[in-house]
Amino acid sequence: MMTTLFRIVLVVVCVATFAAVIQKIRRSRMRLEDAVFWVLLCVMFIIFAVFPAVPDTLASMLGIYSTANFLFLFMIFILLMKIFTMSLHMSELEKKLEELAQSEALSEVLKDKEDRA
Prior knowledge:
The chain has one domain. Helices cover 87% and strands 0% of the residues.
């Protein structure tokens, strides 16, 4: 069972995170895909705080003694999945950057050959 204080803190932190995400979007410092992830995560935790029976039921179904432990474990799992997707995206970007650098180097070599001829 979540205490009232924990539920209030959860809502306050989620609202603050939501406000920060909206501010980052307005200043064009965050991609929309990333913002959607954080907004959905905040909404989900607000639902957990407003309807404490949901995480209590999920915790008991999974055999987790404390609802707070379930929430922390769930958050760790979600963040690990986010890190995994970000590392995949970063690998793709690094590969594209390497291909772009090689292409640019070849273009410069060809341009130098044309200038010499």
